[in-house]
Amino acid sequence: MPGLADTLYNTIFRRNSVFVASIFIGAFGFGLAFDTASNRFWDYHNRGKQWKDIRDKYATPAEGE
């Protein structure tokens, strides 16, 4: 396992600017993934109860359509 540790050190931890950038990129990616997963979970468990699912039943088309 020393090969993996050396590679990780040399690519990410050696320079502070790369380390900080990788933290920001990782946090941004995690935030996007968590938000997407949360929205999919919410939509799946509330299927048929949300306005986007029942809009066609209640919304009237605008005049001229």
From TrEMBL:
<keyword id="KW-0812">Transmembrane</keyword>
<dbReference type="GO" id="GO:0005743">
    <property type="term" value="C:mitochondrial inner membrane"/>
</dbReference>
<dbReference type="GO" id="GO:0045275">
    <property type="term" value="C:respiratory chain complex III"/>
</dbReference>
<keyword id="KW-0999">Mitochondrion inner membrane</keyword>
<keyword id="KW-0813">Transport</keyword>
<dbReference type="InterPro" id="IPR036656">
    <property type="entry name" value="QCR9_sf"/>
</dbReference>
<protein>
    <recommendedName>
        <fullName>Complex III subunit 9</fullName>
    </recommendedName>
</protein>
<dbReference type="GO" id="GO:0006122">
    <property type="term" value="P:mitochondrial electron transport, ubiquinol to cytochrome c"/>
</dbReference>
<keyword id="KW-0679">Respiratory chain</keyword>
<dbReference type="Pfam" id="PF05365">
    <property type="entry name" value="UCR_UQCRX_QCR9"/>
</dbReference>
<comment type="subunit">
    <text>Component of the ubiquinol-cytochrome c oxidoreductase (cytochrome b-c1 complex, complex III, CIII), a multisubunit enzyme composed of 3 respiratory subunits cytochrome b, cytochrome c1 and Rieske protein, 2 core protein subunits, and additional low-molecular weight protein subunits.</text>
</comment>
<keyword id="KW-0496">Mitochondrion</keyword>
<keyword id="KW-0249">Electron transport</keyword>
<dbReference type="InterPro" id="IPR008027">
    <property type="entry name" value="QCR9"/>
</dbReference>
<keyword id="KW-1133">Transmembrane helix</keyword>
<comment type="similarity">
    <text>Belongs to the UQCR10/QCR9 family.</text>
</comment>
<keyword id="KW-0472">Membrane</keyword>
<feature type="transmembrane region" description="Helical">
    <location>
        <begin position="12"/>
        <end position="34"/>
    </location>
</feature>
<comment type="function">
    <text>Component of the ubiquinol-cytochrome c oxidoreductase, a multisubunit transmembrane complex that is part of the mitochondrial electron transport chain which drives oxidative phosphorylation. The complex plays an important role in the uptake of multiple carbon sources present in different host niches.</text>
</comment>
